[in-house]
Amino acid sequence: MKAVIARAFAPLDQLAYGDWPEPEAKGDGVVIAAEAIGVNYPDGLLVQGLYQMKPPVPFVPGMEVAGRVIAAGSKVQSIKVGDRVAALTVIGGYAEKVAFPETMAMKLPDAMSAADACALICGYGTSHHALKQRGQLEQGETLCVLGAAGATGVAAVQIGKAMGAKVIGVASSPQKQRIAAEAGADIVLGYDNLKDALKEITGGKGVDVGFDPVGGDAFEALARAMGWNGRLLVIGFASGTIPKLAVNLTLVKGFSVVGVYWGDFTVREPQTYAGNMRELVDWYLAGKVKPVIEGVYPLADAASVLKRVLGRGASGKLILKP
């Protein structure tokens, strides 16, 4: 079968598209024919050796995939050949066929497309865990979402609204600001004079929950706009700059800085993760959340698509298709 292969930790343009051994369904494992493969920011870090995890090389990247089951191991109980499923795979997703344990598979309702299912896993899964478990967002609170037109940002806007928050979306261009507004943000801002704008919008009270997948200067502006008992969520560093925190701000403003590592959460707390995914699917079917799929691209174009994601050139979710 064909797959995207990282033969060494190297720049994205050294990813290869070529032959890879076909996976087998053993024990509690299933194999699907991939219909949609999600592209995520960590994928691009992983293949360059810049992520927290470093798998043995060569490997096939890709952490989320959806398709139809074509083989099931002898110990599989709840899934059968022909079922439509999506899964979190950690690696191995950028391929025509993908194997994973039954426990990682989520059956898809007929009303959910394979592309939307991929978006719900990582992007929405991260944002949901961030706002629910880590940020403990409550109805009526003010949520500020940086990078509000990206995959996790759009998700955070929609999930924040589903949880009853007042949502401020921050994005870098008029086009991206329009996407944030269409996702449901009550107020949309750019990054210029962000601290002062947030202070004015909140009447000097500050932000209750800050959602930051961007880092860099935007993190400092958001930190200075946090309110008493606020929770500033560290999601990632799409700007390419890991910021430094003036910890005296947390003292005088009485807010917490909370790390969000969704991948580790899914391993450490699988039951909570499963419950989160059930809630997201219910919200999807009720129309409360709806992924924004910017485009679907050939699997062979994975390197160029990843470059767009890492360069913050994408709005919404990008999908690869074999």
From TrEMBL:
<dbReference type="InterPro" id="IPR036291">
    <property type="entry name" value="NAD(P)-bd_dom_sf"/>
</dbReference>
<dbReference type="Pfam" id="PF00107">
    <property type="entry name" value="ADH_zinc_N"/>
</dbReference>
<dbReference type="InterPro" id="IPR051397">
    <property type="entry name" value="Zn-ADH-like_protein"/>
</dbReference>
<dbReference type="GO" id="GO:0016491">
    <property type="term" value="F:oxidoreductase activity"/>
</dbReference>
<dbReference type="InterPro" id="IPR011032">
    <property type="entry name" value="GroES-like_sf"/>
</dbReference>
<dbReference type="InterPro" id="IPR013154">
    <property type="entry name" value="ADH-like_N"/>
</dbReference>
<feature type="domain" description="Enoyl reductase (ER)">
    <location>
        <begin position="10"/>
        <end position="320"/>
    </location>
</feature>
<protein>
    <submittedName>
        <fullName>NADPH:quinone oxidoreductase</fullName>
    </submittedName>
</protein>
<dbReference type="InterPro" id="IPR020843">
    <property type="entry name" value="ER"/>
</dbReference>
<dbReference type="InterPro" id="IPR013149">
    <property type="entry name" value="ADH-like_C"/>
</dbReference>
<dbReference type="Pfam" id="PF08240">
    <property type="entry name" value="ADH_N"/>
</dbReference>
